[in-house]
Specification:
- By secondary structure, the protein is α+β, with helices and mostly antiparallel strands.
- The protein has one domain: Glutaredoxin.
- It has five helices and four strands.
- It has a four-stranded mixed beta sheet with strand order 2-1-3-4, sandwiched between helices.
- The longest helix is centred in the last third of the chain and has 15 residues.
Length: about 120
Amino acid sequence: MIQVFGTKKCRDTQKALRFFKERDVRIQFRDIDEKAPSPGELDDMAGALGGFEALLDLKGRAAAARGLAFMAYDAREELLADPALLRTPLVRAGRGRAAAGPDEKAWKEFAKADLAANKGS
């Protein structure tokens, strides 16, 4: 199953949800304002994307409010402390497969794989 992490107000998250709905792909939406990704989920997504820096939205309001551009920090610790720093939507398609931000190319691959896996069921 595909998981989409984001917020209800995020346009890119809405776009991802619509993308999968239009293709009849079952998803699980997790609003990070209500329930942040677990440390294990973050570790898995960071591993798939090449590190925690790929999960950070350094251009967002939360990063500006924390002053991340002007300080040394541990990206994992910052993301665990404040999920608003996540680059949304985060789309996770099982272990070791993820996309951060609006990445329709990856979404298409995830949807195709999910539909093929569920074809027989």
